[in-house]
Amino acid sequence: MNDGILIGLETAFAGYNILMVMMGCFAGTIIGMLPGLGPMSAIALMIPITYGFDPSSAMILMAGVYYGAIFGGSTSSILINAPGVAGTVSSSFDGYPMAQRGEAGKALAIAAYASFSGGTIAAIFLLVAAPQLAKISLSFHSADYFALMCVGLLAIAAFASKGQFLKAMIMTCFGLALATVGQDPLSDITRFAFGNINLMDGISFVLLVMATFAMSEAFMIIFKKTDINFKASDVSKEKLGSIKLSKAEIKEMVPVIGRTSILGFLVGVLPGAGATIASFLAWGFERGIASAKDKLKFGKGSIKGLTAPETANNAACTGSFVPLLTLGIPGSGTTAVMLGALLSFGIQPGPRLYVDQPELFWAVIVSMYIGNVVLLFLNLPLIPYIARILAVPKNILVPLVLFFSVTGVYLISFNNFDIYFMAIVAMISLVLRTMNFPMAPLILGFILGGMMEENLRRALLINDGSFSFMIERPISLGLFVVMILIVLMQVYQIIKDRRSA
Amino acid sequence: MSINYSRITALIFLLFFVLYSYFAREIVVFDFDVGADFNAKTFPILISYLGIGVSFLTFVLCKNDGQTMAQYEWLGVIVLFVLVFTYGIIIKSIGFFLSTNLFLLVAYYYLGARSYKVLLLCSLPVVGGMQFMLHQLLGVYIRDPFLNFLGIIS
Fold this sequence. Notes:
Chain A has helices spanning 2-12, 15-33, 39-46, 55-80, 91-100, 104-137, 142-159, 165-179, 205-223, 237-240, 247-269, 274-289, 292-297, 303-319, 321-327, 333-344, 351-356, 358-386, 394-413, 416-434, 440-462, 469-472, 474-500, and strands spanning 182-183, 190-191. Chain A has a two-stranded antiparallel ribbon. Chain A starts with a helix and ends with a helix. Chain A has one domain (2-500). Chain A is an all-alpha fold and 501 residues long. Chain A is built from 23 helices and two strands. Chain B has two domains: 5-61; 74-150, no CATH class. Chain B is built from seven helices and no strands. Chains A and B meet through helix 8, helix 9, helix 19, helix 20 and helix 21 of A and helix 1, helix 2, helix 3, helix 4 and helix 6 of B.
């Protein structure tokens, strides 16, 4: 393990990779700040750029973008009460009131320190937890992997979109169905291509992500007539105020950081939960345990109220890398996009990654820490300048996002069909999203589809075509029980909702 | 049972999965694979069962969330969609540089940008910079008849 860490340190501290983290954090902050464009869009836009890179640098860049986007989302939550990312919605509860009373600089500093601390503590947890889980997961069989992927898909459908379980499940099935287009990996039989040569290789993962996130987000800004009313003068140094914190304020933050970083990390590790749930839970938890006097401050600019979600969402981001790196199963939509990127590099994340490519495994973990340092020491002082991106009018922003998405896909294949297909997928996504059909389950289903088929095939062949493997192996059985529990919880929720309606 | 947009969408998905199920059964597998425990049809058929079940349940259980489609800016999105489509048609014939600049200029103008300075500064340098990065830094060659005609690239 120590050798692995040393190799990871060497890779992560290579000048080129430090540059990647810095670039990733900056690009992520800028994109994450823009209302609607979250970490998934930010990472999707980066994928075509990383094609010439080696996998470690690409992953380091994307991890930086992920962190940056969360930080950027906090900035727009605090400054204009328009969260760029769902995971930072709860940061606006107390961040925006602080900004309104002239303490925007202080709120941004609290967000940065809390994010830094949450990310750092979680990175240490990851350092300890990931190798242990990787060792355990080496004993997983195909049947266990299949069951684990089913749990992942069910969990993301259940938790990623509250009250929309059935809609999320439709999107999961749709993603799985799209994954079957093209050649069957084992027999090479072409499926669902209908004689169209452009579909014989299957649907491109980058195309699907770009269309469902980046391009449909750009369409959404026009579709919903989103107004970006923000002037560059709103983020002048004078208006932001001081970014210095007093000793008493730091003292108030410390215990909150300790508690919510553990909570955030644990929630992040769970499949489907992620930064959004972690941040809401942390805010609610801190409010719940606060004294009666402190409780009144929540929602009106409380330091604890801002520290809690900011710590938890960054810790959850780190936590979500645990299942990705050790099991090869993404815990959230964003890590699903990263998994797709890794697969396109020919790398299969999972327990073997830790053994076969320690430089990639450890470099990503170490670079997360570097990313936190970059955000704290470079992005925070530069916020008055970076936040000016919020002043870019939508009539410039939308065409640019469309341009980057289309070019990103076209430059991979040089095929006009991809542009047409992408536009159609983006339109369909736009309509579906308007009707609360979530996109993250679609992407997860699409990415896991191929792996699920492969593992199910192997499990069925080993078991002579019988599905009894689901109850014969203890790990599969345990996961099967979890699946039933998730479904029962959702059934209960649906019945409860219908009764209350 | 009231009709709402979510229910209509669930019905469309139901039809999609019924069709998907039909085409999944139509997949031609190798003779030696026909009676196998798992072949190229198996997984798609399983997905179709799940898809049909879930979309049917959504169709039946879906609540009316009061969603309307009239309040949205349909025209703007359709124009952008057509623009992207047109961009796809012309990119190969007139080249990356010219088609991308045209795409950006028309999109900016349609969305309300009128200042020539803004229109030009947000298109020419962006596309030029992108093409320079692709050619010189990343080694990606894009065939461009227009720049070729001007003698800028070979």
